[in-house]
Structures are given as structure tokens and as C-alpha cells.
Amino acid sequence: MSIKNTLDWYSSLDDDVTYKVESNKNGFAVLLNTLMMEQGVSKSVLAHKLEKSAPYVTKVLRGDANLTIKSMTELLDVLDCKLHINGCHKDRDARWVTLVTGGRQTAVINKEDQKCASAWARQGVRDEAA
Amino acid sequence: MLLQKIEGNKYLVVAYVEEAADGDESIVALDDLRSLGQKYSGSIKGIISLFKIYAKYGRMQPDGVTQSHMHHANYEPDILEFIKGKVRVFCFVDKGGMVVLTNSGLKKGQKASSKDVSKAIKVFRKYHSAKLAGDIEFLEKE
């Protein structure tokens, strides 16, 4: 196979649904691993908390498991975290920011960003109250 | 020695390019993956998504690929493998976290296939000799 042919195949995967599914499975595995690292939780401790086997946790951390919403919720719950499900247009990139309520403002990037952030935070607080 | 750039972000992911006697060039690790067939389609695509995660965040770091996604297949020399289902992509890491993909294969037993590891070691040695001789050329993705 020529290099061009191989690279064309590689690039074509960006629009492939199976690729997107596998990418999301890996994304959840990476998220779980990051939360475990932050909390100093090992695979065996997570397995114990979940009352599941260590190979199950390995399978999840490899992104091999096609998890249900129930399983993802349970996995995050034992780490005192919750699942958020969101979607956006494929040409956009969504990022999470953590809103610390009751915290002290420590940095302002610029006035326009501050205005947007404040409006977004107010909207979040209104949604929480509703 | 030719290396094809596959992913580039915080870290570089490159693949070894084999030059045949007739002048044909091929990206061994990716061609090995393609030859595994439809049965392993999900795992192949999953492993490619790991290359992108590695390029952005590295390994065993927050948001990076996990120890379960990528770990040692051999020590001395250090050969690592990306893992997804039964599919394995062998590689080594050079300074700055650059990953060089060498070859791919299927998991055959509990331990990494010695034949696949030997192929990866051969490329590892070839790379380090070429590096010492200043004989490494990077091919850009068009």
C-alpha cells in the first residue's frame, strides 16, 4: 500500500461513526483515569468500591467496554462525581469549566470575557434555582 | 531512515516507513492495522483515537492515555504497546515524548508476541543508529 493511500484511509476515519464511538469510549476511560489519579484511587480500590472484578475495571480503563448510562453513572458515583451528558455540532468543540459557587474572584482576563462569564454563571444559577 | 508524521500536538506521533528494494515505501504500523480486516474494525479505529489523545496529552497524565491503553511490551530496550481489544500497536518513546510506531499485530497469548516485539526492537535499533548518523527524515502529512 502506498503512503498516500494509507494516509487517505487514516484521514477518512474522522468522519466514521465507529471511529467516533471508539473515541467516546476512550474519552470516558481517560476521564475515569484522570479522576482516579486526582483522588489517588487505584484500580483494585475502585473495583472493591464497585463490588466488581479488577478485570472489569481494566476493561473500562482500556475503553473496551461499551458502557451503559447506568454503568457510567455508577462508576462516577463511587468517585463522588456525576455524569453530564451533552452534545454539540460536530464542527464545534465543547469544553467543561468548573463553576465554584461562593468562591472569590482571583483573575479577570479581560472585560469582555468577564461579562460573558458572569452572564453564563448567572444563567447557571437561575437554572439551578428553577 | 524515513518517519511519517501521523499526529502532532504537544507530543509527536510518527510511524516508521519501510523502504522496499523496488523503491516502494509503506507505513508498516498502519498497513499492518489495515490488513487485520473488518472483524477488528472497532479496535483499529479505537487505537487510532488513542494516537490523537497521546499527541494532545501524553501518557499517564491527566487527560492522557491510561496505563491500560499503553504499557510496556518489553524492557531493555523499552518497547511499548497501544492496546485496544485484541489489537496491538508497538512503539517506542524518544526524548520529548515523541512516539515512533513500529508495527502492529493481534494479541496471541498472555505476553506480547515475541515475533512482533522483535520487529519493534529491530526498528528501535535502526532508529537509534540513524539518529546518531543524523540520517532521519520526517515526512509531513499533506
Write structural notes for this entry.
The complex is a heterodimer of chains A (130) and B (142). Chain A is mainly α and 130 residues long. Chain A has two domains: 1-85, lambda repressor-like DNA-binding domains (434 Repressor (Amino-terminal Domain)); 94-130, no CATH class. Chain A has helices at residues 3-12, 17-39, 43-50, 54-61, 69-77, 111-129. In chain A, helix 3 crosses helix 4. By secondary structure, chain B is of the alpha+beta class. Chain B is 30% helix and 33% strand. In chain B, strands 1, 2, 3, 4, 5, 6, 7 and 8 form an eight-stranded mixed β-sheet that branches. Chain B is globular.
Spell out the key features of this protein:
heterodimer, A: 130 residues, mainly alpha, 434 Repressor (Amino-terminal Domain), 2 domains, 6 helices, 0% strand, B: 142 residues, alpha+beta, 8-stranded mixed sheet, 8 strands, 30% helix, globular
Give the SSE map.
The complex is a heterodimer of chains A (130) and B (142).
Chain A: H1 3-12, H2 17-39, H3 43-50, H4 54-61, H5 69-77, H6 111-129
Helix pairs in contact in A: 3-4
Chain B: E1 2-8, E2 12-19, E3 25-27, H1 28-34, H2 41-57, E4 70-74, E5 79-84, E6 87-93, E7 99-106, H3 114-132, E8 137-139
Parallel strand pairs in B: 1-8, 2-7
Antiparallel strand pairs in B: 1-2, 2-3, 4-5, 5-6, 6-7
Q: How much of the sequence of chain A is in beta strands?
A: under 5%
CATH topology of the largest domain in chain A: 434 Repressor (Amino-terminal Domain)
What is the H-and-E element order of chain B? EEEHHEEEEHE
Evaluate the radius of gyration of chain B.
14 Å
How many domain regions of chain A? Answer: 2
Q: Helical percent range of chain A? A: 55-70%
The termini of chain A sit apart by 59 Å
From the helix content, strand content and strand pairing of chain A, which structural class follows?
A: mainly alpha
Q: Could you state the order of secondary-structure elements of chain A as H and E?
A: HHHHHH
Number of helices of chain A: 6
Number of E-state strands of chain B: 8
Mean pLDDT of chain A: 84
CATH class of the largest domain in chain A: Mainly Alpha
Give the full name of the CATH homologous superfamily of the largest domain in chain A.
lambda repressor-like DNA-binding domains
